[in-house]
């Protein structure tokens, strides 16, 4: 449905490509016509929307605001269309879901597989993003739902459900610590460690524990990628510290053992299902939200 005015359609295209010529090629509209619409819009609003640079066009602060609003209007119209279809009894829709890389394995693919059987008319578009950016992207209208690790406190962000995952040591199943029910952080001083490196948020938490306990890690290697940490541990380089969520699949397959850390002050990793307070969810998005709540946030072995 063409809900945008001609000006807004042209404006969004120019903003996306940073060039009137490239927007012209994409829309198959004369560049002069696009330029006239942009100039007319700027005159009507009373402020420039683009900086004219030798390398192309760059959004001004006013242009950034207009682009964010245009994206929200577009998504709201899509949601309205889905809701109208729902009223007509059409069991279909489109849902955009944001997740961090840690969830690319486990319950999300399984959930989508089940939904494909039970609700084949619902299309779920999954976007994997840096966890630090997900809250802003959700609030900015980039998705209907988001799964966020340790979500920030934001007025616009509503947490519909959450689940805590303890931090612990990961080791090969044949390692001496593998049979323990739990262990103190001081275990770090006894064995070589595969240490999380910045920008992983876990790195800062371990530094605080080192200060609190006066225990120093014995690094055999470090990595700024969760998968690399697990791979190094499985190769026998050392033991590591991750959340249970980070290594859930390897633990379930018996490739790694997980030993919770017993220190009372260590904070677990929180997985939260979030929505934008201002967004009205479609029936399809409500269905996915309920399935995630039931699948990921209620059962101990779900994720």
From TrEMBL:
Q: Which organism is it from?
A: Tanticharoenia sakaeratensis NBRC 103193
Name assigned to this protein: Transcriptional regulator LysR
Identify the domain of life. Answer: Bacteria
Tell me the protein family, please. Answer: Belongs to the LysR transcriptional regulatory family.
Which is an annotated GO molecular function term of this record? DNA binding
User: Which InterPro entries does the record match to this protein?
Assistant: HTH-type_LysR_regulators, LysR_HTH_N, LysR_subst-bd, WH-like_DNA-bd_sf, WH_DNA-bd_sf
What are the HTH lysR-type domain coordinates in residue numbering?
8-60
Keyword Transcription regulation in annotation: yes
